[in-house]
UniProtKB/TrEMBL annotation:
Designated name of the protein: Extradiol ring-cleavage dioxygenase, class III enzyme, subunit B
One GO molecular-function entry: dioxygenase activity
Keyword Translocase appears in the UniProt entry: no
Family matches, as InterPro entries: Extradiol_dOase_DODA, Xdiol_dOase_suB
Cofactors (names): Zn(2+)
Top-level taxon in the UniProt lineage: Eukaryota
Alphabetical keyword list: Dioxygenase, Metal-binding, Oxidoreductase, Zinc
Metal-binding found in the keyword field: yes
Origin species: Phyllosticta citribraziliensis
All residue ranges annotated as the Extradiol ring-cleavage dioxygenase class III enzyme subunit B domain in the record: 9-254
């Protein structure tokens, strides 16, 4: 039986930079999740993205008190330049201690500037203002079990009112994308042809893993996805898949059995990029309602 005092965990596929400026069902869902988080009085957000990794055996935590934002292409600056980031240094220090206690060589990074993989989602979730946020790096060796363990080490923050998010990509191979509609017509959603079979197959495999596994089985299933025959066609590099591992670590404890992932929104862009949005768990006051709906179904 899932625990009743834990916040949900989100895996968001952030997609291309144009997901910041263009309307989509994914953007609508991000806003819905942000509204729910604020309504439930979250203390802050703890987030792993896909564009920042630490070398050797290290993991870093963003500790820059006044980070800049890396500029993005195909988005008008008015969509993001004036948005004020709110790094949560106290929670950052807490994360460093939790990670070290779990055996990680964790360090703070006082110069890191935020990248669109994280602030794109935060702007869409919280357009009225950024909540206190802590960013966790990946490790550049992209070991799936390492990143599951990061999520597991920070899982207890869910019981303290923090929202844990992984921002990556369900299908994210920049080498397979079709860019000419975006370059010529500023249209990232054109889909002049259907997605390639490998993209469709792997997208389905990711959904199957989330829908059919919970608890420790979820952790095992997501790591196995990197052995899927279509994995390299769907993920040109490993960086955008580590956030899934982080999420499975944060929502894959024995206590999480019965909390299956839900595909809540999905947006295809650039022909072969699939931006699937998954949530595991519900807010504590919604748990009884969810159980009643599932029982009726």
């Amino acid at each position: 039986m899932p625990a009743n005092n834990l916040t949900p965990v989100h895996f968001f596929s952030h997609g291309s930079t144009m997901m910041l400026g263009e309307e989509s069902t994914s953007a609508d869902y991000w806003k819905k999740c942000g509204d729910e988080a604020l309504a439930h009085g979250i203390k802050g957000v703890v987030m792993m993205g896909a564009h920042w990794d630490a070398d050797a055996d290290r993991v870093e935590v963003a500790m820059n008190p006044t980070p800049n934002k890396s500029p993005v292409a195909y988005v008008h600056p008015s969509k993001y330049v004036d948005y004020v980031l709110q790094p949560d240094l106290a929670t950052g220090e807490r994360c460093i201690q939790l990670l070290r206690a779990a055996g990680f060589a964790a360090e703070g990074n006082t110069t890191f500037d935020w990248i669109h993989d994280t602030y794109l989602v935060l702007i869409r979730m919280f357009p009225g203002g950024c909540p206190p946020t802590t960013l966790i790096s990946m490790n550049a060796r992209f070991d799936p079990h390492y990143h599951v363990k990061i999520g597991a080490a920070l899982r207890q923050l869910r019981a303290e009112g923090y929202l844990l998010i992984g921002s990556g990509g369900a299908v994210h191979n920049l080498y397979r994308n079709v860019y000419w509609p975006m370059v010529r017509h500023a249209d990232n959603f054109a889909q002049p042809t259907p997605p390639e079979p490998a993209s469709l197959d792997f997208r389905q495999a990711v959904e199957d893993v989330f829908r059919n596994n919970s608890g420790p089985e979820l952790r095992r299933a997501v790591t196995r996805l990197m052995k899927h025959p279509q994995y390299r066609e769907a993920q040109g590099t490993d960086d955008h898949f580590m956030a899934i591992m982080f999420v499975a670590g944060a929502a894959g404890d024995e206590e999480d059995r019965g909390d299956f992932g839900r595909l809540e929104a999905e947006t295809w862009e650039l022909t072969n990029m699939c931006n699937s949005q998954f949530t595991i768990g519900v807010w504590p006051d919604q748990r009884g309602q969810t159980a009643a709906v599932e029982s009726a179904a």
